Amino acid sequence: CVTLDVQAACRDTSVTQELLKEGFHRDLLVKVELGEDAGGCAVAAQVRLPPGIFVDPYELATLQQHNLTKAVLFPDVTDVEAPEYLARDVVLLLFLEPEARCSRCFRAAVPVHARYHRPAQGTEEALVALESPEVLLCCCHGHLSAECWEPAEVDAPCSSDTSPCQWHSTKHRPAYEESVLRVPVGLREHNSLVCALTLLTTGLCTGLILAAACKYGHF
User: Fold this and answer.
1) Sequence-separated (6 or more) residues with CB below 8 Å from residue 136
2) Do the beta carbons of residue 186 and residue 194 sit within 8 Å?
3) Alpha-carbon distance 136 to 44, whole Å?
4) Together in a domain, 192 and 179
5) Reduced to 3 states, what is the DSSP secondary structure of residue 126?
6) CB contact at 8 A, 78 and 90
7) In angstroms, what CA-CA distances link 36 with 13, 44, 91, 144?
8) pLDDT, mean over the chain
9) CA 152 to CA 201: how far, in whole Å?
10) Phi/psi of residue 25, each to 5°?
11) Per-residue pLDDT at 3 exceeds 50
């Protein structure tokens, strides 16, 4: 069978991702082990971020200025204040760095942030599923096996110092697992209580401000 021969010749590339830390502000760690040596090639992970999670482009720019990470966002304009239900998917191309003790191992991390969600009924958390990344290779000065790699539609250079070249993705993709981010949300049952307390607090603060203005103000 041709399919089996191709899969036998193309050793599996493994990819794992972890969401580190707790709360709304996390670090996304991606680790890749290639099935073959990729000497001279750039290795990247293409991650599709759902509306419930985002990368701050301003924070990313600062990290890149200090050479702490390399990544590209598509689109590159992100509303960091938008809640989950007004946001949209974003694609992150994260450039991976080689590990010292493994010639076929690469890794990189980038800060990610959870968005606020609508209040839920009967649960105190929303689940944000993060699909496994797609592994990409960009070999501007080398060649990849046509049996194992196919051209990918990625409009980005191999690195920040080179012109755009052709990225490739693996033809034989094993089944990867999703990562799930649990985001705390409010309860709809508490809407009336929250509204009442908000109005009471606003009225009290407004009264205190007016009282202070009348007592100490000069009109």
Assistant:
1) 43, 44, 45, 46, 93, 152, 154, 167, 168, 169
2) yes
3) 5
4) no
5) strand
6) yes
7) 8, 15, 26, 10
8) 81
9) 55
10) -115, 110
11) no
Output the pTM of the full model. Answer: 0.78
User: Which alpha helices (H) appear in the chain, and where do they start and end?
Assistant: 2-9, 57-65, 191-216
CB 38 within 8 A of CB 137: yes
Predicted local confidence at residue 50, as pLDDT = 94
Given a cut of 50, is residue 41 above it in pLDDT?
yes
pLDDT in tens, 76-119: 888 999 999 999 999 999 999 998 888 889 999 999 999 988 88
Look at the block and give the residue holding tokens 């040596």.
Answer: 37
The domain in which residue 210 lies consists of 188-218
**Token output for 24:** 């709304």
Q: 143 is written with which tokens?
A: 């060649």
Does 7 reside within a domain?
no
| Same-domain pairing of 129 and 196 | no
Domains identified in the chain, total number: 2
Are 153 and 204 contained in the same domain? no
Residues in the chain: 219
